[in-house]
């Protein structure tokens, strides 16, 4: 059971100043994210890993984010600073991670895709001493079912054929693994922060770029997604392979028996259009 009061007391103890106010941040598919203000004026963010299936793996996820932020503290990437970790939930009731709060807000519309691409290239240029876990595909074979709502059933069938083949070779790269405009903070027209490092991995650079493009395509439109990929290609160490675009897009399908991730009809339609587009690349 979540002990919010206990979690706030723990956060205050770790900072050395009690929490005087808190508010829930928007988003947070995996977690309850709380913006905390401390008596001495310090501003922090507390991740409480509350939502299944991530809650079951909360210790691993929060530890990975903690370790990623420790590594990033010595780089130019604007990531939060890890302050304290309660991976086993002994203080908070669930796995928890306390970190610094960065300025800025997500850009819901018209993000600067050139700035996004340049930052992602900077992330991919980093080389931790110990590689993070190998990336996981979110396009599980159980999801390879043509959705009933599609206008392009043949494109989905083609996508599943692509994924059933051999993945292309790639040079392992440091990945955010959930990079996208919704995990970026913006202030004064510039990117002020990159958040949500629980999925940090090692894998193909284009998988990170594909995920950012898919988010743009589904949440905004195809045009900024294509523009982002063009911008990233100017920085990428390897040529784009459409396999990674297909893998990421299929990953948005729900497992059998689960509801569709996107509740708004226009988002489902844009996912359908994006998949149709990416299977036509190459």
3D structure, described in words:
The model has no long low-confidence stretch (mean pLDDT 95). The chain is 36% helix and 16% strand. It has helices at 4-15, 58-72, 113-124, 153-164, 205-219, 222-233, 242-250, 265-279, and strands at residues 19-24, 32-38, 43-48, 82-86, 96-100, 173-175, 184-187, 190-194, 201-203. The chain folds into two domains: 4-100, Phosphorylase Kinase, domain 1 (2-Layer Sandwich), CATH 3.30.200.20; 113-279, Alpha-Beta Complex (Aminoglycoside 3'-phosphotransferase, Chain: A, domain 2). With 282 residues, the chain is of the alpha+beta class. The protein has a five-stranded antiparallel beta sheet with strand order 1-2-3-5-4. A two-stranded antiparallel sheet has the order 6-9. A two-stranded antiparallel sheet has the order 7-8. β2 (32-38) and β3 (43-48) form a beta hairpin.
Name given to the CATH homologous superfamily of the largest domain: Aminoglycoside phosphotransferase (APH), C-terminal lobe
Percent helix: 25-40%
CATH architecture of the largest domain: Alpha-Beta Complex
If you consult CATH, what is the topology of the largest domain? Answer: Aminoglycoside 3'-phosphotransferase, Chain: A, domain 2
Q: What CATH first level of the largest domain would be assigned? A: Alpha Beta
User: Quick one: overall form?
Assistant: globular
Radius of gyration: 19 Å
Note the run of SSEs as H and E: HEEEHEEHHEEEEHHHH
Poorly predicted spans: none
Largest sheet: 5 strands, antiparallel
Q: What is the average per-residue confidence, as pLDDT, rounded to a whole number?
A: 95
Which sequence of strands runs across the widest sheet? 1-2-3-5-4
How many domains, as an integer? 2
């Amino acid at each position: 059971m979540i002990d919010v009061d206990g979690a706030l007391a723990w956060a205050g103890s770790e900072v050395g100043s009690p929490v005087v106010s808190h508010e829930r941040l928007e988003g947070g598919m995996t977690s309850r994210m709380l913006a905390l203000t401390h008596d001495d004026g310090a501003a922090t963010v507390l991740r409480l890993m509350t939502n299944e299936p991530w809650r079951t793996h909360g210790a691993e996820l929060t530890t990975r984010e903690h370790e990623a932020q420790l590594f990033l503290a010595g780089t130019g990437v604007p990531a939060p600073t890890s302050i304290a970790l309660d991976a086993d939930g002994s203080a908070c009731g669930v796995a928890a991670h306390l970190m610094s709060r960065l300025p800025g807000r997500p850009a819901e519309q018209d993000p600067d895709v050139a700035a996004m691409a340049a930052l992602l290239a900077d992330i991919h240029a980093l080389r931790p001493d110990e590689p993070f876990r190998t990336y996981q595909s979110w396009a599980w074979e159980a999801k390879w079912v043509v959705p009933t709502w599609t206008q392009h059933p043949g494109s989905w069938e083609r996508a599943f054929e692509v994924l059933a083949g051999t993945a292309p070779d790639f040079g392992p790269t440091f990945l955010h693994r959930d990079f996208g405009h919704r995990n970026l903070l913006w202030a004064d027209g510039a990117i002020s922060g990159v958040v949500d490092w629980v999925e940090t991995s090692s894998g193909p650079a284009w998988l990170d770029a594909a995920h950012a493009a898919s988010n743009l395509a589904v949440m905004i439109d195809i045009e900024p997604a294509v523009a982002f990929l063009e911008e990233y290609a100017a920085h990428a160490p390897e040529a784009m392979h459409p396999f990674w675009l297909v893998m990421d897009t299929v990953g948005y399908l729900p497992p059998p028996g689960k509801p569709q991730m996107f509740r708004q009809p226009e988002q489902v339609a844009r996912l359908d259009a994006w998949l149709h587009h990416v299977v036509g690349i190459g």
